[in-house]
């Protein structure tokens, strides 16, 4: 079958169309005919060789599709079900058929398009888990660093739905979008701390960083209680700063809840590009450049 990934790890020039065998599902796995697959920053890191995965390997860590086979002992799903979920080992989704982890897969409600469902497991799932970890009360102020990207947009919406006030740090081109989702947009760059203090004069109760590096270092002083400083973009630095990573809950229950929120109209992962699988290099280049808006989806 046709897939898209790499043979030797390395830069963007290593991306290529692959001809690989149709995968056989093992325990806790389903095989799906892929209808849509998400693009995430982790995909270019995997291609770079950062996670030690050797090629040939198809990229893609989340998909929506139609079940074509069940692994041994898997229950709760049947061939023909429309599902969405995360791929085992964070690989294999950019393909005609892919494996998903059964315990991190959910039924896709009819009202949730495959292109939307495929955008949920990684980014919206991470957003959901971050809010669970922070457990902020209504009225608290949450700063989201990198608020206009794949994780940022769902975290803004999920936080607003809980009555949390959100300061969204993003490039100026994303400010109208963020304001539309109920965040107070603030531009990054020189003077950021003053701009945040101007819109949140009583301080910030927590921060969720999606950028890392200097951008994380800059906002850390805003959070007095460092157990409320989270990052999924720079784990070593957030630990050094006294903060925490986000522990992921890769479960069917979380995915089911996210799909329910989408169907109810209270969560929109904001898919801004849907591209064909053979355009995967261009799709990944946009995400790798680091300023993508919302989510990018591939269709086989
Ligand atoms: N479980 C996990 O560990 C996990 C899961 C999901 C994601 N992640 C990681 O989390 C990070 C974010 O993922 P994502 O999918 O949201 O990426 P993304 O879609 O690329 O979003 C990142 C956002 O940060 C903004 N940004 C860039 N420089 C900035 C700066 N200096 N200050 C504030 N914002 C800035 C970008 O756009 P603008 O500059 O235009 O505002 C972009 O919207 C990645 O590093 C990813 O690998 C980890």
From TrEMBL:
<feature type="domain" description="Enoyl reductase (ER)">
    <location>
        <begin position="10"/>
        <end position="298"/>
    </location>
</feature>
<dbReference type="InterPro" id="IPR013154">
    <property type="entry name" value="ADH-like_N"/>
</dbReference>
<dbReference type="Pfam" id="PF13602">
    <property type="entry name" value="ADH_zinc_N_2"/>
</dbReference>
<dbReference type="InterPro" id="IPR036291">
    <property type="entry name" value="NAD(P)-bd_dom_sf"/>
</dbReference>
<dbReference type="Pfam" id="PF08240">
    <property type="entry name" value="ADH_N"/>
</dbReference>
<dbReference type="InterPro" id="IPR011032">
    <property type="entry name" value="GroES-like_sf"/>
</dbReference>
<dbReference type="InterPro" id="IPR051603">
    <property type="entry name" value="Zinc-ADH_QOR/CCCR"/>
</dbReference>
<dbReference type="GO" id="GO:0016491">
    <property type="term" value="F:oxidoreductase activity"/>
</dbReference>
<keyword id="KW-0521">NADP</keyword>
<dbReference type="InterPro" id="IPR020843">
    <property type="entry name" value="ER"/>
</dbReference>
<protein>
    <submittedName>
        <fullName>NADPH2:quinone reductase</fullName>
    </submittedName>
</protein>
């Amino acid at each position: 079958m046709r897939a898209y990934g790499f043979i030797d790890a390395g830069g963007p020039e290593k991306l290529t169309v692959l001809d690989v065998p149709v995968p056989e599902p093992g325990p806790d796995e389903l095989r799906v005919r892929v209808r849509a697959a998400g693009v995430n920053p982790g995909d270019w890191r995997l291609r770079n060789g950062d996670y030690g995965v050797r090629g040939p390997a198809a990229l893609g860590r989340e998909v929506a599709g139609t079940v074509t086979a069940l692994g041994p002992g898997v229950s709760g799903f049947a061939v023909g079900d429309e599902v969405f979920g995360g791929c085992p080992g964070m690989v294999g989704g950019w393909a005609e058929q892919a494996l998903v982890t059964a315990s991190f897969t959910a039924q896709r409600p009819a009202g949730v398009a495959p292109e939307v469902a495929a955008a949920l497991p990684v980014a919206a799932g991470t957003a959901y888990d971050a809010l669970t970890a922070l457990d902020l009360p209504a009225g608290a102020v949450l700063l989201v660093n990198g608020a206009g990207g794949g994780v940022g947009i769902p975290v803004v919406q999920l936080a607003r739905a809980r009555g949390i006030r959100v300061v969204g740090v993003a490039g100026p081109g994303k400010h109208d979008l963020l304001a539309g989702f109920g965040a107070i947009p603030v531009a990054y760059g020189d003077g950021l701390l003053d701009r945040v203090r101007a819109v949140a004069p009583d301080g910030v109760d927590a921060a969720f960083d999606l950028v890392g590096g200097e951008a994380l270092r800059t906002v850390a002083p805003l959070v007095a209680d460092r157990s409320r400083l989270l990052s999924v973009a720079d784990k070593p630095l957030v630990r050094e700063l006294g903060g925490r990573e986000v522990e992921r809950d890769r479960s069917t229950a979380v995915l089911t809840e996210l799909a329910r929120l989408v169907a109810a109209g209270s969560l929109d992962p904001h898919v801004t590009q849907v591209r064909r699988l053979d355009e995967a290099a261009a799709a990944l280049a946009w995400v790798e450049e680091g300023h993508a808006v919302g989510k990018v989806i591939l269709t086989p």
